[in-house]
């Protein structure tokens, strides 16, 4: 009796389907991948390629309608117009400055959380570093708008020294971006320092190295790939940003702002400008790959 | 490494300054929401709860919050589905182009938001608009889902790598079919990773401003867009202060819940 029910169940469509799926891993795989690939490859990569192709189109200067004729005019304009060149250099400079500042601030914090703090506090400290990552981007920029505004916290703190805060402008942009991306730098350095084998440090001390020498010859080379990994985030996030600049940058312009202001009138030019951060980031990633940073991402 | 006493003290002080720098701005936002004055000057001239009640009644902020919640739920649902599918494909199968897929998943969040934004914007306006689908809630959800897939994927793939396929094989040896093994064995194993991934995806969508700017049609205003539009209006300053303070308080939630749910990756990195 039991066997007949089992055999009957074996013929139900669901069981048959399950059997087919089990026997054919290729079919299972294609069922798994069809929807996501349609989404990511067609919708996302498709839009991206159309955008990059449109960088080689132009617009009719009267109607600002897109003319779909292949030309490298946009890139020619990009490299020959002084303003564009300045803005590109400034954006790369801001991204590098933010990255260096993040690394300099992150190191002592990470060193404390990974090696100096009592082990039972360490997980809690990591959470303390992480929590601000989930605070709204806009709220964090807003916080700096409050701090740097006239008669704000910065002015109030510097007043006793006869100084005033930087106000809104390029320095404000660098400070705010550093604040925004700092946790992305602390975390990888913390992880690297935590995994640093203690016996290497002991060996270095046994061989007569003082703390400074051990730091330079042992700690730094082992942590550097993680700094590079963190820098991927700080660098690329700064390079693409345009909202922070709009909020605390005063009249400062970065690549993002140029892209933004060209979208309505000249989409091909905006697309050409948009390729700049992408290319710079790809070059940066390739350079970082040589340090072994990408495997520790 | 034997650090000298002064080096230890210097490091402690530096780390203390670092943590202060991280938390002072957030604390300032909280304090400022009680500022009785409309200006952001420091120190505040007085403290009041008045603006909290004004903000509670603010139609604009409420409407924007509701739009954000709807967009976040839609994007999270799609990201959960697609991210889980890719995670299973990548973790349980070997095939040509596997690494490429892991790379493409990360791309929408790795490239500058403005690039993703204008790419989607021009695609939507050239392909969807002729079909009669304008920019609106639908396009916002699609845009958000695209970069939310990665957090779900990361969480689920980490869980699948930790739990080998042998559990499923054991279930099948005991007579369970593919669906049965999934429902009784695999799904319970990945459930908390799904929850954590979904929560982080929602938080990511809730916070997104750049892609939203380019994919939202007229009249679709998410909370970040609302804050951005009202940030520089003196009239709205007190309400913006309160909304900002609420968002700072709420940011503890995703990290707390994700921490409880999944020890894999949820709190290791933001993506």
Automatic annotation (TrEMBL), chain A:
UniProt keyword Transmembrane helix present: yes
Record membrane topology: Multi-pass membrane protein
Subcellular location: Cell membrane
CDD domains on file: TM_PBP2 (cd06261)
GO cellular component labels: plasma membrane
ABC transmembrane type-1 domain sequence ranges: 88-288
Keywords, comma-separated and alphabetical: Cell membrane, Membrane, Transmembrane, Transmembrane helix, Transport
InterPro entries, per database record: MetI-like, MetI-like_sf
Family to which the UniProt record says this protein belongs: Belongs to the binding-protein-dependent transport system permease family. CysTW subfamily.
PANTHER family the UniProt entry points to: INNER MEMBRANE ABC TRANSPORTER PERMEASE PROTEIN YDCU-RELATED (PTHR42929:SF1), INNER MEMBRANE ABC TRANSPORTER PERMEASE PROTEIN YDCU-RELATED-RELATED (PTHR42929)
Protein name: Spermidine/putrescine ABC transporter permease
Organism of provenance: Streptomyces avermitilis
From TrEMBL, chain B:
Record carries keyword Amino-acid biosynthesis: no
Any single GO BP term: transmembrane transport
Residue spans crossing the bilayer: 9-31, 71-91, 103-124, 136-160, 239-258
Keyword Transport found: yes
One GO CC annotation: plasma membrane
Domain of life assignment: Bacteria
Lipid bilayer topology: Multi-pass membrane protein
CDD domains on file: TM_PBP2
Database matches in PROSITE patterns: ABC_TM1
Subcellular location: Cell membrane
Start and end residues of each ABC transmembrane type-1 domain: 65-258
UniProtKB keywords: Cell membrane, Membrane, Transmembrane, Transmembrane helix, Transport
Primary residence: membrane
Family: Belongs to the binding-protein-dependent transport system permease family. CysTW subfamily.
Stated name of the protein: Spermidine/putrescine ABC transporter permease
Organism annotation: Streptomyces avermitilis
